Amino acid sequence: MADVVMLDSGGSNLASVQFAFERLGVAAALSRDPERIRRASHVVLPGVGAAGPGMARLRAAGLDRLIPTLTQPVLGVCLGMQLLFQSSAEGDTACLGILAGRLERFDTARCGRVPHMGWNRIDGVRDSPLLAGLGADAFAYFVHSYAAPVTAATVATCDYGGAFAAVVSERNFHGAQFHPERSALVGARLLANFLELE
Question: What residues have CB less than 8 Å from 44, skipping those under 6 apart?
Answer without folding.
Answer: 4, 5, 6, 7, 17, 21, 28, 74, 75, 76, 77, 80
